[in-house]
TrEMBL record:
EC number(s) from the headed UniProt entry: 2.4.-.-
Xref: Gene3D superfamilies: Spore Coat Polysaccharide Biosynthesis Protein SpsA, Chain A
Class of enzymatic activity (EC top level): transferase
Keyword Lyase among record annotations: no
Keyword annotations from UniProtKB, A to Z: Glycosyltransferase, Transferase
Natural source organism: Tunturiibacter psychrotolerans
Molecular function terms, GO-annotated: glycosyltransferase activity
Coiled-coil features, chain-numbered ranges: none
Record protein name field: Glycosyltransferase family A protein
Domain of life: Bacteria
Length: 328
Protein backbone atom coordinates (compact mmCIF):
# COMPACT_ATOMS: atom_id res chain seq x y z
CA UNK A 1 0.00 0.00 0.00
CA UNK A 2 1.22 3.55 -0.66
CA UNK A 3 2.24 5.46 2.42
CA UNK A 4 0.45 8.64 1.31
CA UNK A 5 -2.85 9.25 -0.44
CA UNK A 6 -2.90 12.59 -2.23
CA UNK A 7 -6.57 13.56 -2.34
CA UNK A 8 -7.83 15.95 -5.04
CA UNK A 9 -11.58 16.75 -5.17
CA UNK A 10 -12.61 18.09 -8.56
CA UNK A 11 -15.64 20.01 -9.73
CA UNK A 12 -15.47 21.89 -13.06
CA UNK A 13 -11.77 22.53 -12.57
CA UNK A 14 -10.62 22.22 -16.19
CA UNK A 15 -8.95 25.65 -16.26
CA UNK A 16 -6.12 24.75 -13.88
CA UNK A 17 -6.49 21.03 -13.16
CA UNK A 18 -3.77 19.91 -15.56
CA UNK A 19 -1.14 22.08 -13.88
CA UNK A 20 -2.23 20.86 -10.43
CA UNK A 21 -1.97 17.17 -11.33
CA UNK A 22 1.35 17.71 -13.10
CA UNK A 23 2.82 19.32 -9.97
CA UNK A 24 1.68 16.39 -7.82
CA UNK A 25 3.03 13.73 -10.15
CA UNK A 26 6.39 15.55 -10.20
CA UNK A 27 6.92 15.15 -6.44
CA UNK A 28 10.38 14.00 -5.37
CA UNK A 29 8.63 11.75 -2.82
CA UNK A 30 7.30 8.77 -4.76
CA UNK A 31 5.42 6.52 -2.33
CA UNK A 32 1.91 7.85 -2.90
CA UNK A 33 -1.34 7.26 -4.74
CA UNK A 34 -3.14 10.18 -6.37
CA UNK A 35 -6.85 9.80 -5.60
CA UNK A 36 -8.88 12.13 -7.81
CA UNK A 37 -12.62 12.26 -7.18
CA UNK A 38 -14.74 14.04 -9.77
CA UNK A 39 -17.88 15.43 -8.18
CA UNK A 40 -20.12 15.46 -11.25
CA UNK A 41 -18.19 17.95 -13.37
CA UNK A 42 -19.89 19.26 -16.50
CA UNK A 43 -16.73 20.58 -18.17
CA UNK A 44 -13.66 18.75 -19.49
CA UNK A 45 -12.28 17.86 -16.06
CA UNK A 46 -12.68 14.09 -16.46
CA UNK A 47 -11.06 14.17 -19.89
CA UNK A 48 -8.07 16.04 -18.42
CA UNK A 49 -7.76 13.57 -15.54
CA UNK A 50 -7.84 10.58 -17.89
CA UNK A 51 -5.22 12.13 -20.16
CA UNK A 52 -2.64 11.25 -17.48
CA UNK A 53 -1.47 7.64 -17.70
CA UNK A 54 0.52 7.46 -14.47
CA UNK A 55 -0.33 4.22 -12.60
CA UNK A 56 -0.40 6.09 -9.28
CA UNK A 57 -3.62 7.84 -10.32
CA UNK A 58 -6.91 6.38 -9.03
CA UNK A 59 -10.01 8.07 -10.44
CA UNK A 60 -13.52 8.02 -8.99
CA UNK A 61 -16.60 9.65 -10.47
CA UNK A 62 -19.86 10.45 -8.71
CA UNK A 63 -22.97 12.57 -8.94
CA UNK A 64 -22.51 16.07 -7.55
CA UNK A 65 -22.73 15.97 -3.74
CA UNK A 66 -20.56 18.94 -2.75
CA UNK A 67 -17.02 19.46 -1.49
CA UNK A 68 -17.35 18.17 2.08
CA UNK A 69 -18.99 14.90 1.06
CA UNK A 70 -16.41 14.41 -1.68
CA UNK A 71 -13.53 14.96 0.74
CA UNK A 72 -15.11 12.58 3.25
CA UNK A 73 -15.45 9.91 0.60
CA UNK A 74 -11.77 10.37 -0.17
CA UNK A 75 -10.88 9.98 3.51
CA UNK A 76 -12.75 6.67 3.61
CA UNK A 77 -11.32 5.42 0.29
CA UNK A 78 -7.72 6.40 1.05
CA UNK A 79 -5.22 3.55 1.14
CA UNK A 80 -2.36 5.57 2.59
CA UNK A 81 -1.31 5.99 6.20
CA UNK A 82 -1.38 9.74 5.57
CA UNK A 83 -3.64 11.95 3.45
CA UNK A 84 -2.22 14.97 1.66
CA UNK A 85 -4.90 17.29 0.35
CA UNK A 86 -4.73 19.48 -2.73
CA UNK A 87 -7.41 21.66 -4.26
CA UNK A 88 -7.92 21.41 -8.01
CA UNK A 89 -6.24 24.73 -8.80
CA UNK A 90 -3.22 24.94 -6.47
CA UNK A 91 0.38 23.99 -7.24
CA UNK A 92 2.49 21.82 -4.93
CA UNK A 93 6.22 22.51 -5.06
CA UNK A 94 8.25 19.42 -6.04
CA UNK A 95 9.63 18.85 -2.53
CA UNK A 96 6.31 19.33 -0.70
CA UNK A 97 5.60 15.68 0.18
CA UNK A 98 9.27 14.96 0.86
CA UNK A 99 9.39 17.77 3.41
CA UNK A 100 6.09 16.88 5.04
CA UNK A 101 6.96 13.20 5.36
CA UNK A 102 10.35 14.10 6.84
CA UNK A 103 8.56 16.12 9.51
CA UNK A 104 6.01 13.31 10.01
CA UNK A 105 8.83 10.85 10.66
CA UNK A 106 10.62 13.32 12.95
CA UNK A 107 7.47 13.91 15.02
CA UNK A 108 5.57 10.59 14.90
CA UNK A 109 3.20 11.79 17.65
CA UNK A 110 1.83 14.55 15.40
CA UNK A 111 -1.61 13.96 13.90
CA UNK A 112 -1.06 16.35 11.04
CA UNK A 113 0.64 19.44 9.71
CA UNK A 114 0.21 22.45 7.47
CA UNK A 115 2.68 24.75 5.74
CA UNK A 116 3.03 28.26 4.38
CA UNK A 117 2.11 29.18 0.83
CA UNK A 118 2.73 31.80 -1.78
CA UNK A 119 -0.04 33.33 -3.91
CA UNK A 120 -0.17 33.28 -7.69
CA UNK A 121 -2.35 35.08 -10.22
CA UNK A 122 -2.36 35.50 -13.98
CA UNK A 123 0.76 37.70 -14.04
CA UNK A 124 2.37 37.87 -10.62
CA UNK A 125 3.09 35.92 -7.45
CA UNK A 126 3.24 37.23 -3.92
CA UNK A 127 4.34 36.04 -0.51
CA UNK A 128 3.29 37.80 2.70
CA UNK A 129 6.27 39.28 4.51
CA UNK A 130 5.56 37.31 7.70
CA UNK A 131 6.02 34.09 5.69
CA UNK A 132 9.48 35.07 4.42
CA UNK A 133 11.28 33.39 7.28
CA UNK A 134 15.11 33.48 7.17
CA UNK A 135 15.25 30.26 9.20
CA UNK A 136 12.91 27.37 8.51
CA UNK A 137 11.15 25.92 11.53
CA UNK A 138 8.45 23.58 12.69
CA UNK A 139 6.09 24.79 15.40
CA UNK A 140 2.80 23.84 17.01
CA UNK A 141 -0.40 25.04 15.35
CA UNK A 142 -2.66 27.35 17.36
CA UNK A 143 -6.21 27.49 15.91
CA UNK A 144 -6.91 31.00 17.26
CA UNK A 145 -3.57 32.69 16.55
CA UNK A 146 -2.96 30.95 13.21
CA UNK A 147 -6.54 30.89 12.00
CA UNK A 148 -7.39 28.84 8.93
CA UNK A 149 -4.32 27.55 7.11
CA UNK A 150 -4.41 26.55 3.46
CA UNK A 151 -6.06 23.15 3.03
CA UNK A 152 -3.83 22.36 0.06
CA UNK A 153 -0.83 22.19 2.42
CA UNK A 154 -2.40 19.61 4.76
CA UNK A 155 -0.82 16.26 5.53
CA UNK A 156 -2.66 14.30 8.24
CA UNK A 157 -2.95 10.78 9.54
CA UNK A 158 -5.80 9.00 7.80
CA UNK A 159 -6.87 7.37 11.07
CA UNK A 160 -7.07 10.75 12.83
CA UNK A 161 -9.23 12.28 10.07
CA UNK A 162 -11.57 9.31 10.26
CA UNK A 163 -11.73 9.45 14.03
CA UNK A 164 -12.79 13.10 14.16
CA UNK A 165 -15.44 12.53 11.49
CA UNK A 166 -13.79 14.33 8.59
CA UNK A 167 -15.28 17.55 7.23
CA UNK A 168 -18.61 18.82 8.54
CA UNK A 169 -21.00 20.10 5.89
CA UNK A 170 -22.79 22.50 8.22
CA UNK A 171 -19.58 24.50 8.68
CA UNK A 172 -19.06 25.02 4.94
CA UNK A 173 -17.48 27.27 3.63
CA UNK A 174 -15.13 27.30 6.64
CA UNK A 175 -15.28 23.52 7.05
CA UNK A 176 -11.50 23.38 6.59
CA UNK A 177 -10.87 25.59 9.65
CA UNK A 178 -13.42 23.61 11.64
CA UNK A 179 -11.50 20.43 10.79
CA UNK A 180 -8.16 22.05 11.68
CA UNK A 181 -9.55 23.10 15.08
CA UNK A 182 -10.92 19.65 15.87
CA UNK A 183 -7.71 17.95 14.75
CA UNK A 184 -5.69 20.24 17.03
CA UNK A 185 -8.06 19.46 19.92
CA UNK A 186 -7.44 15.76 19.34
CA UNK A 187 -3.63 15.93 19.36
CA UNK A 188 -0.55 17.73 18.13
CA UNK A 189 -0.77 19.58 14.81
CA UNK A 190 2.31 21.27 13.38
CA UNK A 191 3.09 24.18 11.08
CA UNK A 192 6.04 23.88 8.70
CA UNK A 193 7.28 27.45 8.28
CA UNK A 194 8.20 26.99 4.64
CA UNK A 195 6.59 27.76 1.30
CA UNK A 196 5.42 24.40 -0.03
CA UNK A 197 2.37 25.30 -2.13
CA UNK A 198 1.32 28.06 -4.51
CA UNK A 199 -2.25 29.15 -3.78
CA UNK A 200 -3.97 30.27 -6.97
CA UNK A 201 -6.07 33.44 -6.90
CA UNK A 202 -8.60 33.53 -9.73
CA UNK A 203 -11.95 35.16 -10.35
CA UNK A 204 -13.83 31.86 -10.58
CA UNK A 205 -12.91 30.84 -7.01
CA UNK A 206 -15.88 29.94 -4.83
CA UNK A 207 -14.57 32.31 -2.15
CA UNK A 208 -16.28 35.29 -3.76
CA UNK A 209 -19.65 33.57 -4.10
CA UNK A 210 -19.85 32.62 -0.43
CA UNK A 211 -17.86 35.45 1.15
CA UNK A 212 -20.65 36.84 3.32
CA UNK A 213 -21.56 33.41 4.67
CA UNK A 214 -17.88 32.69 5.20
CA UNK A 215 -17.47 35.68 7.51
CA UNK A 216 -20.46 34.71 9.67
CA UNK A 217 -19.39 31.08 9.94
CA UNK A 218 -15.82 32.09 10.74
CA UNK A 219 -17.08 33.66 13.99
CA UNK A 220 -19.21 30.56 14.62
CA UNK A 221 -16.26 28.21 14.09
CA UNK A 222 -14.16 30.19 16.56
CA UNK A 223 -16.96 30.13 19.12
CA UNK A 224 -17.49 26.38 18.66
CA UNK A 225 -13.77 25.70 19.15
CA UNK A 226 -13.68 27.67 22.38
CA UNK A 227 -16.79 25.89 23.65
CA UNK A 228 -15.33 22.45 22.98
CA UNK A 229 -12.09 23.39 24.73
CA UNK A 230 -14.16 24.44 27.77
CA UNK A 231 -16.23 21.23 27.57
CA UNK A 232 -19.35 23.19 26.64
CA UNK A 233 -21.82 22.09 23.97
CA UNK A 234 -21.62 23.71 20.56
CA UNK A 235 -24.36 26.06 19.46
CA UNK A 236 -26.14 25.53 16.18
CA UNK A 237 -25.50 28.24 13.61
CA UNK A 238 -28.97 29.67 14.24
CA UNK A 239 -28.39 29.69 18.00
CA UNK A 240 -25.04 31.39 17.53
CA UNK A 241 -26.52 34.13 15.34
CA UNK A 242 -29.33 34.69 17.84
CA UNK A 243 -26.91 35.37 20.71
CA UNK A 244 -24.78 37.88 18.77
CA UNK A 245 -25.08 41.52 19.88
CA UNK A 246 -28.13 42.81 18.01
CA UNK A 247 -27.65 46.54 18.34
CA UNK A 248 -27.08 48.64 15.24
CA UNK A 249 -23.50 49.54 16.17
CA UNK A 250 -22.44 45.90 16.52
CA UNK A 251 -24.10 44.92 13.23
CA UNK A 252 -22.47 47.83 11.41
CA UNK A 253 -19.10 46.90 12.87
CA UNK A 254 -19.38 43.32 11.61
CA UNK A 255 -20.55 44.58 8.23
CA UNK A 256 -17.62 47.02 8.02
CA UNK A 257 -15.06 44.33 8.78
CA UNK A 258 -16.62 41.96 6.26
CA UNK A 259 -16.55 44.56 3.48
CA UNK A 260 -12.96 45.52 4.36
CA UNK A 261 -11.84 41.89 4.00
CA UNK A 262 -13.72 41.50 0.72
CA UNK A 263 -12.24 44.66 -0.85
CA UNK A 264 -8.77 43.66 0.38
CA UNK A 265 -9.15 40.23 -1.18
CA UNK A 266 -10.37 41.63 -4.50
CA UNK A 267 -7.54 44.19 -4.51
CA UNK A 268 -5.05 41.36 -4.08
CA UNK A 269 -6.72 39.47 -6.92
CA UNK A 270 -6.36 42.47 -9.25
CA UNK A 271 -2.71 43.02 -8.26
CA UNK A 272 -1.81 39.40 -9.01
CA UNK A 273 -3.60 39.64 -12.36
CA UNK A 274 -1.87 42.92 -13.25
CA UNK A 275 -5.05 45.05 -13.11
CA UNK A 276 -3.47 47.88 -11.15
CA UNK A 277 -6.19 50.51 -11.60
CA UNK A 278 -8.90 48.14 -10.41
CA UNK A 279 -6.66 47.15 -7.51
CA UNK A 280 -6.30 50.81 -6.54
CA UNK A 281 -10.10 51.25 -6.50
CA UNK A 282 -10.64 48.30 -4.14
CA UNK A 283 -7.64 49.26 -2.02
CA UNK A 284 -9.07 52.76 -1.63
CA UNK A 285 -12.42 51.33 -0.54
CA UNK A 286 -10.64 49.04 1.94
CA UNK A 287 -8.65 51.97 3.32
CA UNK A 288 -11.87 53.84 4.18
CA UNK A 289 -13.18 50.77 5.98
CA UNK A 290 -9.97 49.98 7.91
CA UNK A 291 -7.31 52.70 7.34
CA UNK A 292 -4.84 51.41 9.94
CA UNK A 293 -4.67 47.91 8.47
CA UNK A 294 -4.36 49.10 4.88
CA UNK A 295 -1.62 51.60 5.73
CA UNK A 296 0.33 48.79 7.42
CA UNK A 297 -0.14 46.56 4.40
CA UNK A 298 1.03 49.22 1.98
CA UNK A 299 4.04 50.01 4.15
CA UNK A 300 5.00 46.34 4.24
CA UNK A 301 4.62 46.12 0.46
CA UNK A 302 6.87 49.12 -0.12
CA UNK A 303 9.46 48.65 2.58
CA UNK A 304 9.64 44.92 3.33
CA UNK A 305 13.06 43.36 3.27
CA UNK A 306 13.74 40.72 0.67
CA UNK A 307 14.58 37.79 2.93
CA UNK A 308 16.10 34.76 1.16
CA UNK A 309 13.57 31.94 1.17
CA UNK A 310 14.54 28.29 1.01
CA UNK A 311 12.33 26.31 -1.35
CA UNK A 312 14.59 23.34 -1.94
CA UNK A 313 13.42 21.50 1.14
CA UNK A 314 16.99 20.95 2.32
CA UNK A 315 16.59 22.68 5.68
CA UNK A 316 15.44 20.43 8.49
CA UNK A 317 14.47 20.83 12.11
CA UNK A 318 17.50 21.14 14.35
CA UNK A 319 18.38 17.99 16.24
CA UNK A 320 16.76 17.88 19.68
CA UNK A 321 14.40 20.79 18.97
CA UNK A 322 10.78 20.13 19.82
CA UNK A 323 7.98 21.91 17.94
CA UNK A 324 7.20 23.92 21.06
CA UNK A 325 10.76 25.25 21.19
CA UNK A 326 11.15 25.97 17.51
CA UNK A 327 11.15 29.68 16.59
CA UNK A 328 7.83 31.15 15.56
Amino acid sequence: MPRVTVLVPVYNGASHLGATLTSLLAQTYKDFELLVIDDGSTDNSVKIIKSFSDPRIRVMQQENVGLCSTLNRGIQEARGEYIARSDQDDISFPHRLDREMTVADTYPEALGMFAYNTKIGEKHSWTNSDKLTPTNCVRVYDPIKDGCLLGSTMLARTSALREIGGFRERYYPVDDWDLECRLAEKGQVLVICELLVAYRFHRDASTYRVFSEMQQKRYWTKDSHRRRVQNLPELSFEEFLAQLPGNIRARLQRRRLGLWKLHTRIAGQHLLDGNYLKAAVNLTAASFLHPIDISKRIRRMLLRERIPVTTSGETSVESGTSPQEAPH
